[in-house]
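User: Hi! Is it possible to get a structure for several chains at once, not just one? Here's what I have:
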Amino acid sequence: GENVEQHPSTLSVQEGDSAVIKCTYSDSASNYFPWYKQELGKRPQLIIDIRSNVGEKKDQRIAVTLNKTAKHFSLHITETQPEDSAVYFCAASAQGGSNSKLTFGKGTLLTVNP
Amino acid sequence: KAGVTQTPRYLIKTRGQQVTLSCSPISGHRSVSWYQQTPGQGLQFLFEYFSETQRNKGNFPGRFSGRQFSNSRSEMNVSTLELGDSALYLCASSLELHSSLFFGEGSRLTVL
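Assistant: Yes, the chains can be modeled jointly so their relative placement is included. Here is the combined structure:
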């Protein structure tokens, strides 16, 4: 089955700096890659997603890139703010296949210091 | 539009007991998935339901079961509880089987 590795497990940055979180996946059939943000005590919330027919997607201060050949994708947050502090999860799935469940990485705790 | 609703939010059980958790998806969403979240293992997939049928199942023992009703509401059951079952159980709904997931707040289960 799919295996998703996420790095780093913790990341501390100064307000205004950029943050990058990287994930690798094992199943070449995976074609859908969402990112979720989970604040302390809250539910995971979808912040951005990318499909395998696209190499990059941006939404204001966040962007995701996908390298299908290397089977890795990354989340980039620019001009970080204290409210960006949360656990971020990447995930992968082979949508349209018989086994389309989302497999999550173990998460990255991002701390943005004021 | 109301979000995904899970009940109960918190519960405490003892080893050997059983528990039933409930999930009401976003109105119009027909697919429901369940995940177990623990500090060490992250989000682990339990099951996925669509049109009252289990479409996918994760690598959990048979003590974990679920079902979906005709109104898309779902329940999961854990029998013969073990200490290691202590976790946050998250339900997520999606419009269709392969579309974006929207999570509920979760049911936090503590097994003593």
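DSSP finds no helices and eleven strands in chain A. The mean pLDDT of chain A is 93.

User: Great, thank you!
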